[in-house]
Amino acid sequence: MALLPIIVAPDPRLKRLSLPVEQVDDEIRQLMDDMLETMYKAPGIGLAAPQVGVLKRVIVVDVAREGEDPQPMQMANPEIVSVSDGDASYEEGCLSLPEHFAEVVRPATARIRYIDRNNELREIDADGILAVCIQHEIDHLDGILFVDHITALKRNMILRKLTKLKKEQARQASKEAAVA
Ligand code: NI
Prior knowledge:
The chain is an alpha+beta fold. It has helices at about 25-40, 130-140, 150-180, and strands spanning about 45-50, 60, 75-85, 85-90, 100-105, 110-115, 120-125. It contains three helices and seven strands; from the N terminus they run H-E-E-E-E-E-E-E-H-H.
């Protein structure tokens, strides 16, 4: 297993469309395992392949609370089959938008179809934070970030702050490289 670098927004690689996986083979299982390890280390409750620079429709999720047994889920080609009429609002964050959070409204429950790590087709009904998390991760596969669901004013404020943070980090890194 290996830790993968997580891409921070704004970055054009986070805005691209990811391609379906033909089948879950050893290569995809390795990607799923590396993504899960990267997500736990971050720490986060979900991660999508484009966040680690891989434009494939693969996501990992674990919404177990602290103290509960881990509930890792690894999904290829996840898709929303149907959603509830009712919406729910949840304060979302994202490993590609570190330290930023905003209320996002989404359908409260969703039926999800996906291929599991054994290459078998599955369907589950998700609600609560699991529904939020899976919908958030599927968005990533279509180049959509949670800030795309909020007002432009708030989105631009968050992206401006992240741009500034990335510039500072790059400056710091080049300074350290010069010293070394
Ligand atoms: Ni995210």
